Amino acid sequence: MRKLKTIEMNRLSVEEFKEARKLPLIVVLDDVRSLYNVGSVFRSADAFRVEAIYLCGITATPPHPEIHKTALGGEDSVDWRYFETAEEAVEQLHRDGYFVYSIEQVQGSTKLQDLKLNASQSPMTSQTAIIFGNEVKGVKQSVVDMSDGCLEIPQFGTKHSLNVSVTAGIVIWEFARRLLTDNAASE
Q: Whole-model pTM?
């Protein structure tokens, strides 16, 4: 095996990314305090061609050198929008027809592996948003209350939380895997 050179990977330019078909998924970051976590989520969102990121509350916005350090340019390719509160973002998402999941451990949450996407809609046109909360406090209860559902990643160790950027990478990948697989099967 030989590692591929960057030129062999056929990466999209920022302009090509902006024009390309996106995964119908919006990532919401609510009061995420670490700029490195924000940058890491931008990088994952770029990797899976996520539609947009909504940044809420104290979550920092680009341009910022600490976001860029982990985003590596993902902050330039992925569309983003700022909201004063996550509640305002959820209200807007509902007005725009999105199904909103909070990623949180709650009573009655759905385990990520048990997620059932709406089969009545085309997988690449169903609109979903996923909310990630503060590194310490998670998703606020008021935001959980506004959500259409909650998803959690099962964990089996002594800790019952993952870093927000790790969680985002896992959840974004799972949506991409399911939507892209379902889309390929339906074509």
A: 0.92
Burial class from Cβ neighbours inside 10 Å (0-12, 13-18, 19+) for residue 11 reads exposed
Domains of the chain: 20-110+123-153+162-186 (3.40.1280.10)
**Coil, strand or helix: which one is 28?**
strand
Q: Coil, strand or helix: which one is 55?
A: strand
Residue located via tokens 């559902």: 149
Written as six digits, the tokens of 90 are: 């959820």
Structure tokens at 121: 């809609």
Residue range 72-106, pLDDT digits in tens: 999 999 999 999 999 999 999 999 999 999 999 99
For 118-140, what is each residue's pLDDT tens digit?
Answer: 644 444 457 999 999 999 999 99
